[in-house]
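Table 4 source record.
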Amino acid sequence: MQQQHEQQRGAAEALVRGTEDCEDVSGRVHLLPCSIGHNGRAPVSTFFTPAAGGEASSDDGALRVQEAAFRGRGLQGAALALPPRYRGLVLGKDSSRTSSGARDGAFEDWQTLAQFRDLTYWNHDSRPSMSDPLPRCFDWLHLSEIIHGSISAEEVASMMDEQSSESRGLKRKSSS
């Protein structure tokens, strides 16, 4: 199990290492609330032309709103920067390489086609908000780092001292 995890981590690191020469498509990545039955290049800028639409305010901050239409239906969107130390990757199957695992369906080889540092997400019937699911997912990344981050021996000792002090205080209160 540990070996499999290390292989997966190595594959992910290889993908990221291969991004130095990739095209940066920041500002051109859009997450639309629809499904399109095409996978490949298309003259998107001819048919999809977002325009500024003001600001959307919420308790957690303001988003610069964009407006557009897709297939006659109005959309409202907002650009989101990826959290620090994160970047998005556009991947494609690497048909030039064949791995032993690909033959039995275990995994396939991928290549990095492009990278991005922000994306614009779109809503059909509501103005973008920091309470939307996508911005809230970015909050999880920060929380995940806290949960899964390493803790030094000094931090463990400090927490143990705090718990010990608190439990002594509770014992004194209950005996009085």
